Here is the input.
Amino acid sequence: MKRIYSIEDACIGCHLCEVACITEHSRSKDPVRAFLHEKVRPISRCTVEEWEGGVLSLSTNCRHCDEPDCLRACISGAIQKDDNGVVRLDVEQCIGCWSCVMACPYGAVQRNLKAKKANKCDLCPDRENPACVDACPNRALVYKEGSQK
Here is the structure.
């Protein structure tokens, strides 16, 4: 299955992956409208982590694990793995208990505090490549075949 991989040495901490993710998951699909005019602005499903004053930065994305800890921890059944191996979150079924957030060893499942629901990468199912990958100017995000325990 194809997954997103971060290349730490290439990430410059520009956060364009986050902007692309927010825009892709907005109603308008327009960055200006998504950030300034939409009542409910989506939150990014990837996060740029920075350490040591910006010396090292990388994008944290869901790894769509072969055996996902978040799925096992989900008490409502909101997290499922589809036939293609993509770990999906049904926000309507999510009860906001944060068990999946605590179970993910990569910190890739986030809290959406406004919606009181979990939030995670869905690999942009309506696109050939995830928006974050296409937006990265330094090619620090790569979408390729691989496995993840």
